[in-house]
Specification:
296 residues, alpha+beta, Protein Transport Mog1p, Chain A, 2 domains, seven-stranded mixed β-sheet, six-stranded antiparallel β-sheet, 8 helices, 15 strands, elongated
Length: 296
């Protein structure tokens, strides 16, 4: 179903899923169920989040019925206006709807207009944390992880909404971490990925930190027993996790994800194994994404 089309845009649904084509480039449109937050995802999995925006299903239904929609700022949209806003926001990163609406006043678009980042004062201070969905680039945990250069586990910390755990929040963090880990600073994709194809099951904190066992790769085994020995010990593993989860394990919510959704995991699938975990810490309102894949 197509609800709008011109020389630059095509807006509609295919197999029940909203999409937009902008000058030949296709994007999936989806939303966060609680915020609301409009997600614009390109074919490589790179995601833009427009906060306080629209549910694309509702928008497309309105346009199909000949109605307009109104944003939280009071601006009324027809289908062309919606396409223009999405086209302006696409490939930015994490913005508010009022910034995306600059397209209507002919202000120049900036790349990734994120708020200025400031260092966090302490683990329990929320004052300087980046907004929800943003990758936390500076944190004491990264300094501890850097002391273990032979570790094959990759870590990425993503800020979460206060009190918002659950699979959808974990998936959003996984998408942001993938973009951070799998796309280089020039915007080139290192490993193809589509995190929305990942399946998940919830596991306990006890399972997360379980001892090394036979068979399936788990987190401790990935840290301590990569294809080439690193000499690290359980004490080293505990130091890293004490930095990542400084307030203990009582507030942790853990999801284990499938690994068939990215080329990143191809090497580990040869024999050593793959790992993908997201750990929401309710005491810090952040999600730590843990991934591993290696070969000899």
């Amino acid at each position: 179903m197509t609800v709008y089309s011109d020389d630059h845009y095509v807006l509609g649904k295919e197999d029940g899923l909203p999409y937009i084509i902008i000058d030949g480039k296709r994007y999936r449109l989806s939303c966060h169920p609680f915020e609301p937050c409009l997600y614009i995802t390109d074919e490589a999995g790179a995601l833009t989040a427009v906060h306080n925006a629209f549910d694309p299903d509702s928008v497309i239904s309105a346009f199909a019925d000949g109605r307009t929609v109104t944003s939280i700022t009071g601006r009324e949209y027809d289908a062309k206006d919606f396409c223009r806003m999405v086209g302006y926001a696409a490939d930015m990163a994490n913005i508010q709807i009022d910034y995306a609406e600059r397209v209507f006043v002919d202000q120049p678009k900036k790349k990734n207009p994120l708020p200025e980042k400031k260092e966090k004062a302490s683990y329990d201070s929320k004052t300087y944390l980046p907004g929800s969905g943003q990758v936390v680039e500076k944190d004491p945990a990264y300094d501890v992880i850097a002391k273990y250069p032979d570790c094959v586990v990759d870590y990425c910390i993503v800020q979460a909404d206060h009190g918002c755990g659950g699979r959808d929040e974990h998936l959003m963090a996984l998408v942001w971490a993938s973009r951070n880990l799998f796309i280089d600073t020039d915007g080139e994709t290192i490993w193809q990925f589509d995190a929305e194809k990942a399946d998940a099951k919830e596991i306990s904190a006890r399972e997360l930190f379980a001892p090394i066992g036979e068979g399936k790769l788990n987190y401790r085994k990935a840290f301590l027993q990569p294809p080439y020995p690193n000499g690290y010990t359980d004490a080293d593993f505990d130091k890293v996790n004490a930095a990542l989860f400084p307030n203990g394990t009582d507030s942790l919510e853990v999801f284990e994800w499938s690994t068939g959704w990215s080329e990143y995991f191809d090497e580990g699938n040869e024999w050593w194994g793959t790992l993908c975990l997201t750990v929401y810490d309710g005491s810090l309102d952040r999600i730590t994404v843990i991934m591993a894949s290696a070969t000899d």
